[in-house]
Write a structure and sequence with these properties.
Layout lengths: L2 E12 L24 H4 L10 H13 L3 E2 L2 E2 L2 E4 L9 E4 L6 E10 L2 E14 L3 E3 L8 E3 L6 E7 L6 H18 L11 E11 L9 E6 L2 H20 L7 E6 L4 E7 L9 E2 L6 E2 L3 H7 L6 H12 L3 H9 L1 H13 L3 H19 L10 H12 L5 H14 L3 H7 L8 H14 L1 H8 L4 H13 L6 H13 L1
Parallel strand pairs: 12-13
Antiparallel strand pairs: 1-10, 1-11, 2-6, 3-16, 4-5, 4-15, 6-7, 7-10, 8-9, 11-12, 13-14
The chain binds zinc ion (ZN).
Zinc ion binds next to helix 1.
Length: 476
Amino acid sequence: MQYEPVIGLEVHLQLATKTKAFCGCSTEFGKRPNSQACPVCLGLPGALPKLNREAFRYAIKVALALDCGIQKLIKFDRKNYYYPDLPKNFQISQYDKPIAYNGSVMIASGGIAKKIRVKRVHLEEDAGKLIHDTPGDYSFVDYNRTGIPLLEIVTEPDLNSPDEAYRYLTNLKSILQYLDVSSCDMEKGTLRCDANISVRPKGVSALGAKVELKNMNSFKNVRDGLEYEVSRQIEAVSAGEKISQETRLWDAEKGVTAPMRSKEEAHDYRYFPEPDLVPFVESGALVDEIKKTIPELPEARMRRFKAEYGLSDYDAGVMISDKLIADYFEACVKSYNKAKTVANWIMGDIMAQLKERDVGIAGLGLPPEGLSGLLKLIDDGTISGKIAKGVLVEMVETKKAAAEIVKEKSLAQVSDSGRIEEMVKAVVEKEAKSVSDYRNGKASAFTFLVGQVMKEAKGKANPAVVNQVLKKMLGA
Ligand SMILES: [Zn+2]
């Protein structure tokens, strides 16, 4: 029997507000433990939460970008559970009325576009952090993270392979980065992802028992964890076993998932309306205002890059995948109009530099005009493409302009035909055998002679002029 996986994803996104979701405590990362926790964070008697306007705006912005309907009545609920990192014994979240619902994200799957439905987007607060790896028989708790605003984005079970899940996450992250509402860094935990996975015989519409998978802290982890879990379930049901509904943890080191606890149901959390936050009606004016701040999103930008700059699917896809790269590309094209050349340099030498230095495009210190300046020097014959690669590295290291480096290091290529003639003459005299080979019809001898002239010129002779002079001299 053939089985197919059914996967739904829950993404928790930390919103990049300056203060927490329901109090004025700073969200700055890396401060002394418990230095950013007030009575509201700690749930002390009499402390009253207040909704952070910026967090609310960010939530609406994401909802609009994901094509969601937006709730008129904004209401918060208490999700009750007891845990040392949750001093109030409840989390402020949203239960029956999430801020947004019924959205979608498009992905490419097997060469066709597939719509992944977003079931709900809701705003909630983060819990604190327990620190177990300490000496002695103690664990510590840091409440600095308590109350940091999170957006939970939940899909319908529309994903049918680990690869589709990976693509969904990639596209979602790209959209969220364009919106500039979060640093979206899975390694740093500002974007977290849990998955619900079940398998069913192909062609059957009923869902199998689902397993919740947690602890995947990179996109690669998500794909690997899902791949393992899907095969585990298919193997089990094929052998006639029953899948138990539970939460499992992905162990990236061992490459396996292991049971953590049996899955709780919604009623275990005894949700009820948060009495300290009065429900309110969003008039629509704010939504209209936020609509105007939504930038061109990745999919639209990709279409435009193809139409406006003639980029291929692949090139446009790479250019738009990171908003800052896309901005950089467009800024370069403004001062140097060969879009394909710019894209090639970004995908090649520039991305190699980003990888080597482990920085984003903004951290490279190479302004768009810098790259355009370099490309113009290739076009006007001042330097060869090969020399330009070295100049680029130098530009990144010294922050100097291309022309300055070329001048300082005397890298300009020799185009003066008089000087090139001298070099060609010397080579022709020295390589008599290759000259006669060429004259006897051996074409490759010509390439060899060009190479010898370039060697003589230390790579700085203009190849077009060398070709021309050599041909003339050999013909004579
Ligand atoms: Zn606080």
